[in-house]
């Protein structure tokens, strides 16, 4: 390749055929109009050209060697394509911690083996607050807000009345009021209905799990979040239910005419009402009073958003304007950050964890570990970094915080800050499950096109640690399938294992396997899996997870009983066939 040749622009053909990145490289003299900035890479300064027309970051190999640190070059099928159509292979890709002022981001770079400028693409520029969007998306959002200003005025009034179902043996009581401060400093009047809640029959309407919502977001690029104003108060109570929600004050006795906060069935009741309003619409999900709208294109997003707002208007539901976000590229919802690239940890949670001081008691340590466990699925090997801390929680171990604990505590904060992005599950693409078992734990990772969807790990019980290795490896497959049930059930999946004998066992009739193996294999009968062998050195993610397991144990008694019932049925069929 001629090193003096000017390369005007490049496009990156990602491993994922639905992604396209455009950038610009110049390796001759720098233009006077070039927008340059100094960035800190792994503690070393490097000058970058900002290219808002690029959707890929590029770094030459010779520069990478100067700032490399422990950065590894990962093999990649990515190719750079000039505007003329000429294609150029890259050495691979790498991930580097990039900081500018008070912002730190872990970013992906395409590594090239020719003389070129370091390029920072559009997405990276936005993440580091080097540029701000002040264009059509914001104008469109403001326009939508003005067109629907009536939705942000007052409290809504949904059709019909709600009746609180009670246990007939419980007599109504007058409750004391409870006043709590909201996040914005305003006061909210609630009930303290402890006795009433004991008698209320819960609504059997299941709230969605975060994984169920995330699994629908493949290809999402634009997001809006809507928040119902005084959510529960949008629902009217009938006379009988209103009398149950009476309370005493120094100024007399009052009762709620709307569904109050504090009633144990309120979340299900309101979520059910919102689901009824939004039923049949595409690209929208709700969780109690929060509504998420998304689209793969701006046009698709705006169309869906207008449909949602029209449904809300028809139902006479009201929204809080100050808590609504429209037409943005990433949004915080359900405690996570939904972005164009995938799922990330909420910045507020990262900040809360990184600002926590070193624990001084077991209670404070439990609180810290509880927070990091919530984001365990983002980090493939963080459990190994908590082992030393978990030892302090043992009953027979006194709480003595030393330098080793403090180092582990700080390292864990750094690990969380640099956690990877989890890709959205795409039900049109093949699914791969990579599993492994070590002496003490199990590890599993769900993959699509070699990109992580979710990580999982768990510890083995004392008795399970004594199992033969083949049983542990098979149990790792069971654990992975059952943990990711909603993703793998009903579809053909490839399961990677580094235990060669398992590949042969799955090709033989179930009844020929030893009883203990049969019991585990029966738990897999509802899944369509193709077990393939892969050397352990090539399965670094699941191998690491199995050695960096979480201390969580499952109660598999019911599953074992179910497996034994199936085994008995299969054995009876075999005996009947053999005896004619």
From TrEMBL:
Pfam families noted in UniProt: RT_RNaseH_2, RVT_1
Domain Reverse transcriptase, first and last residues per copy: 180-337
Domain Reverse transcriptase/retrotransposon-derived protein RNase H-like: 401-495
Highest taxon of source: Eukaryota
InterPro entries given in the database record: DNA/RNA_pol_sf, Peptidase_aspartic_dom_sf, Retrovirus_Pol_polyprotein, Rev_trsase/Diguanyl_cyclase, RT_dom, RT_RNaseH_2
Gene3D superfamilies, A to Z: 3.30.70.270, Acid Proteases, HIV Type 1 Reverse Transcriptase, subunit A, domain 1
Protein's name in the database: Reverse transcriptase domain-containing protein
Species, as recorded: Mytilus galloprovincialis (Mediterranean mussel)
């Amino acid at each position: 390749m001629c090193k003096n040749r000017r390369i005007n622009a490049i496009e990156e053909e990602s491993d994922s055929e639905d992604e396209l990145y455009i950038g610009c490289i110049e390796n001759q003299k720098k233009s006077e109009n070039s927008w340059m900035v100094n960035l800190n890479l792994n503690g070393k300064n490097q000058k970058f050209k900002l290219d808002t027309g690029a959707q890929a970051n590029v770094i030459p190999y010779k520069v990478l060697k100067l700032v490399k640190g422990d950065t590894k070059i990962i093999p990649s099928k990515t190719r750079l394509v000039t505007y003329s159509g000429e294609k150029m292979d890259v050495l691979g890709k790498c991930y580097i911690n990039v900081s500018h002022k008070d912002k730190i981001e872990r970013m992906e770079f395409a590594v090239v083996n020719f003389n070129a400028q370091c390029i920072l693409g559009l997405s990276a520029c936005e993440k580091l607050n080097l540029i701000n969007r002040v264009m059509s998306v914001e104008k469109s959002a403001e326009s939508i807000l003005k067109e629907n200003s009536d939705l942000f005025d007052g409290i809504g009034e949904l059709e019909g009345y709600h009746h609180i179902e009670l246990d007939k043996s419980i007599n109504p009581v007058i409750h004391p009021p409870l006043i709590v401060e909201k996040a914005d400093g305003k006061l909210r009047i609630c009930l303290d209905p402890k006795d009433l809640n004991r008698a209320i029959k819960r609504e059997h309407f299941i709230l969605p799990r975060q994984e169920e919502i995330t699994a629908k977001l493949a290809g999402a690029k634009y997001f809006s979040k809507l928040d119902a104003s005084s959510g529960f108060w949008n629902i009217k109570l009938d006379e009988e239910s209103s009398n149950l929600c009476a309370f005493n004050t120094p100024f007399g006795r009052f009762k709620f005419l709307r569904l109050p906060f504090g009633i144990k069935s309120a979340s299900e009741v309101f979520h059910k009402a919102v689901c009824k309003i939004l039923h049949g619409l595409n690209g929208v999900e709700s969780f109690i009073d929060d509504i998420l709208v998304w689209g793969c294109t701006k046009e698709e997003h705006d169309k869906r958003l207008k449909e949602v707002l029209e449904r809300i208007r028809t139902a006479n539901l009201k929204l809080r304007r100050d808590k609504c976000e429209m037409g943005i590229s990433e949004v915080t919802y359900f405690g996570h950050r939904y972005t164009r690239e995938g799922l990330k940890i909420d910045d507020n949670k990262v900040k809360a964890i990184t600002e926590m001081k070193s624990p001084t008691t077991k209670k404070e340590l439990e609180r810290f570990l509880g927070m990091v466990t919530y984001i365990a699925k983002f980090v493939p090997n963080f459990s190994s970094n908590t082992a030393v801390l978990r030892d302090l929680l043992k009953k027979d171990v006194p709480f003595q915080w030393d330098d080793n604990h403090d180092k582990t505590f700080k390292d864990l904060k750094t690990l969380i800050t640099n956690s990877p992005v989890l890709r959205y599950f795409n039900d049109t693409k093949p699914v791969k499950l990579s599993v492994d078992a070590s002496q003490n734990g199990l590890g599993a990772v769900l993959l699509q096109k070699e990109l992580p969807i979710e990580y999982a790990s768990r510890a083995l019980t004392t008795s399970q640690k004594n199992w033969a290795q083949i049983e542990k490896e098979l149990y790792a497959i069971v654990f992975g399938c059952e943990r990711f049930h909603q993703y793998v059930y009903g579809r053909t999946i490839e399961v990677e294992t580094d235990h060669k004998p398992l590949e042969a066992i799955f090709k033989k009739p179930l009844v020929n396997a030893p009883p203990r193996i049969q019991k585990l294999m029966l738990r897999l009968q509802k899944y369509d899996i193709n077990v393939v062998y892969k050397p352990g050195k090539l399965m670094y993610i699941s191998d690491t997870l199995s050695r960096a397991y979480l201390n969580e144990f499952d109660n598999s008694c019911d599953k074992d009983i179910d497996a034994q019932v199936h085994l008995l049925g299969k054995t009876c069929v075999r005996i009947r066939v053999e005896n004619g």
